[in-house]
Amino acid sequence: MSSPIINIQNAYDQYLTHDNGTRTYLQDCLTETQEFKTQLRKLKAHLNKHIQETKSLESNDTENKIRLEKRRSLILDKLNKSYKQWDNSIVKHTKRSKQGLTKFNSVALSSFQRFNIDNIYNNRISNAYKKDIQGAVQSHICRYSLSDVPVQDTEKLLRYLQNVYDMSPELSSEFIMLGQILYGLSHRDFQSCWNWSYIEQQNNQSHMMRTLRYKLYIFKALIMTQTESVEDVCYYLVNQIPQGTFQNEKVDFAKDASAMLGQLMIQGKINNFDSYCDKIASECRDSFTQEYCSLYNLPNESPLSLVIMSGILSSQFFMKYAQIKSSAHIGWTTANELPFDVDLPDSLTHFHPVFICPVLKEETTTENPPYSLACHHIISKKALDKLSKNGTISFKCPYCPVQSTISKTQLIRFVML
Length: 417
Description:
417 residues, mainly alpha, Herpes Virus-1, 3 domains, three-stranded antiparallel β-sheet, two-stranded antiparallel sheet, 5% strand, extended, zinc-finger, GID complex catalytic subunit 2, ubiquitin protein ligase activity, zinc ion binding
């Protein structure tokens, strides 16, 4: 039985993309529209020039009037031609996209439509966990919806979240602040994030906070290039950014500043300003979100999103298990674990920050991860290497009589909830 996840990817590449999966038809629509807008700006400039020349003509200058009329006709013909070409392209790409989506729905999703997980997994969530589920839904709504729109009346929003979603005003206010600062950064307004980080950095000198502060300086310098002189921006980059930020051993902070200085001094402007500004804004958002959530003990990612994505990735294993179950007449042996392993990507997993190896009494890290023995007791990689003499011998678990070997151990990755 082929994996439905692979079927979906293949169907997506086949029906919704072209040029070896590098572009979708909707992306072509965006590209064509941007090119058409560029063409319109050029034609607008030609028309404005034509209008100015026409106004400056003498009333008896018939020869130049005829020449300008011909030029105006050429501009209008080019405008009509560009519009028809753009319109035909949009219609063509939209039609192909709709056809591809129809085929994708009928082919790629058919296996999921025939699949009912209730026929396989019958260990339903008990009522005792409903409060946790409600909390995950609340967290998801506040984590992502409050950064999309500006909040005009905070008190009214607090009452709404409390009445509709049963969110406490204390927790809601923290999410509102997070959302509004993220909203500002998305719209190239760094001031609210700047003010927050200035206050917090007085008692917090973490690496992430220093990174955020530096990125905000670069962000401010970028915005200044649109309104200030090159000399003022260069002076700001050289003298206003704290010198300590350039001495960070982990990050080459001077790279962004030096690149901007070079472009300003040589060209007098920043190349690809919009894309570069979006990049810096995104980096500020990521650094701020991570630091803010850490300080206020909020989830950096929505637990609900992580669980749902884990379920989507796991569905292929459930479907395969359904086939095995029907042919071998087997069932679940426990209500708290799966009868198969699900390999989740690193984006959905991480090491628990306070998991301590019971043998060496050391915290597990990426370099020293936790491993499960044959008896399901967990120790660190360093302890495993010591007990097995680097995998050359079998050994007894430090906490039970079960013998184990290096081949019977498994790397442990905790789901990030």
